[in-house]
From TrEMBL:
GO cellular component, one term: cytosol
Keywords, sorted A to Z: Glycosidase, Hydrolase
Native species: Lapidilactobacillus dextrinicus DSM 20335
Highest taxon, organism lineage: Bacteria
Keyword Glycoprotein attributed: no
Single GO BP term: carbohydrate catabolic process
Name of this protein: 6-phospho-beta-glucosidase
Gene Ontology molecular functions: beta-glucosidase activity
InterPro entries (UniProt xref): GH, GH_1_N_CS, Glyco_hydro_1, Glyco_hydro_1_AS
Length: 482
């Protein structure tokens, strides 16, 4: 590891999402969200990709672990106290849109929902933990998907603007950091969670996906405008899923395909949200999907808005890298974060088949900073694994420590390369329901929650070995990773 100190004020912490840990899915006026309609279990994406999936909740046929999750809604004080014990400087969480606007199209917010986040923010600030709020994290109100067709409908810009304005004006005097849309580029592979699109309402028509992206870009710019006008100290970020991509070999055909894959997946959404305009390769990207720029409903006023109100920093998730191979030289495949791909023979994989590549994180940080020259924030990174509770109650998750250590070393390497990195919030700092598989058994946290995949258990919280390790890492600002 490079001998370097992390900068003073580096934001160490952890990250969660409301739909994966809060529970209380119909309490205090909260409406249903799209996450509430996604069944639990490893087949959830396959079910949602079926032409028959119509957003109906069928409790006789499926389980819905998100409905209760780990009941953070009633345990938030205990959970924040544990984060404080680890020494968190920042806590990334999301606002449940349907807790504030139950159907998404109301004109007046639900005060009980707003009060919950008042209390959550107060609890963070009590321990000097900076809140980092994701405004929309895979949890749009179900009504907006069922009755408006998701983000392909421009009316959602109006609804989101109202939601963002409510959130920013309510919390923006106490909260400095906001993100607009979680993993906005994930729609390239699976638009259900970020855009509310399934085959039943247009997911298979790429025109809808690109139109939904444009509408989200406009909505994000409007949120930036609201925030900067309300409080100039607020920092607004975008959030992308980043998977460092390698060409399978030196074949120029694969090299070119990999360059274009990086443009289309890793950079496209950030190019618009950071640079404020559509990139030069947009024509090619659209053409490869059977579209032209004339197919999209984009007004001059909207394009001007994108130019004026771009984000202040880039946040991203990084779990794995990928390989581009287009010549048929390899047919070995692996799983991944909303996307699988060709197996990289130089990497090991997690229990769920995600390839582990800490060097890819250093590459990602360099690629992003070289391209955009804005601060970067790693807001998701972690290892989903099967944890075993020993007879004495301990959880010896050395495999998680090894994973996180190697990735923190990669961050230090990038900082040494000159990259401006704001902070690091490992994903699922407390065990929660996995977004990709709907399981509790796929655990990420430093804190164990006694629940199984069927929702059975005491919900008792306990500290894993990684809890104490991360506590020490934060205390010494990353100088001792042993």
């Amino acid at each position: 590891m490079t001998d370097i100190k992390f900068p003073k004020g580096f934001l160490w912490g952890g990250a969660t999402a409301a739909n994966q840990l809060e529970g209380g899915y119909q309490e205090d006026g909260r409406g249903l969200s799209i996450a509430d309609a996604l069944p639990g279990g490893p087949e959830r994406f396959k079910i949602a990709s079926s032409p028959d999936f119509n957003w109906e909740i069928d409790s006789d046929k499926y389980t819905y672990p998100n409905h209760v999750a780990i009941d953070h809604y009633h345990h938030y004080q205990e959970d924040i106290a544990l984060f404080a014990e680890m020494g968190f400087k920042v806590y990334r969480f999301s606002i449940a849109w349907s807790r504030i606007f139950p159907n998404g199209d109301e004109t007046k917010p639900n005060e009980a929902g707003l009060r919950f986040y008042d209390h959550l923010i107060d609890e963070c600030l009590k321990y000097n933990i900076e809140p980092l709020i994701t405004i929309s994290h895979y949890e749009m109100p179900l009504n907006l998907a069922k009755n408006y067709g998701g983000w392909k409908n421009k009316q959602l810009i109006v609804f989101f603007e109202r939601f963002a304005k409510t959130v920013i004006e309510r919390y923006g005097k106490r909260v400095k950091y906001f993100l607009t849309f979680n993993e906005i580029n994930s729609a390239a592979h699976f638009p259900v969670m970020s855009q509310g699109l399934v085959p039943n309402n247009g997911a298979n028509d790429q025109k809808n996906v690109f139109q939904a992206w444009h509408n989200q870009f406009v909505a994000s710019a409007k949120a930036v405008k609201i925030a900067h006008e309300f409080n100039p100290n607020i920092q607004m970020g975008c959030m992308i899923l980043y998977a460092t991509s390698y060409s399978y070999n030196a074949n120029p055909v694969n090299q070119l395909a990999n360059l274009q894959h990086n443009q289309d997946f890793n950079f496209f959404c950030a190019d618009v949200q950071v640079r404020g305009k559509y990139p030069s390769y947009t024509h090619r990207y659209l053409a490869e999907n059977g579209l032209t720029e004339a197919d999209l409903d984009r007004t001059p006023e909207e394009l001007d808005l994108l130019k004026q109100y771009h984000v202040d920093f880039i946040s991203f998730s990084y779990y794995m890298s990928s390989v581009t191979e287009t010549t048929g030289e390899s047919d070995e495949t692996v799983a991944g974060n909303l996307m699988g791909g060709v197996k990289n023979p130089y990497l090991q994989a997690s229990d769920w088949g995600w390839q582990i590549d800490p060097t890819g994180l250093q590459i990602a940080l360099n690629e992003l900073y070289d391209r955009y020259q804005v601060p970067l924030f790693i807001v998701e990174n972690g290892l989903g694994a099967k944890d075993v509770v020993e007879a004495d109650g301990s959880i010896q998750d050395d495999y998680r420590i090894d994973y996180l250590r190697s990735h923190i070393e990669a961050i230090a390497g990038a900082i040494n390369d000159g990259v401006d990195v704001m902070g690091y919030t490992p994903w699922g700092c407390i065990d929660l329901v996995s977004a990709s598989t709907g399981q509790m058994s796929k655990r990420y946290g430093f804190i164990y929650v006694d629940l199984d995949d069927e929702g059975h258990g005491s919900m008792a919280r306990s500290r894993k070995q990684s809890f104490y390790w991360y506590q020490k890492v934060i205390k010494n600002n990353g100088t001792d990773l042993d």
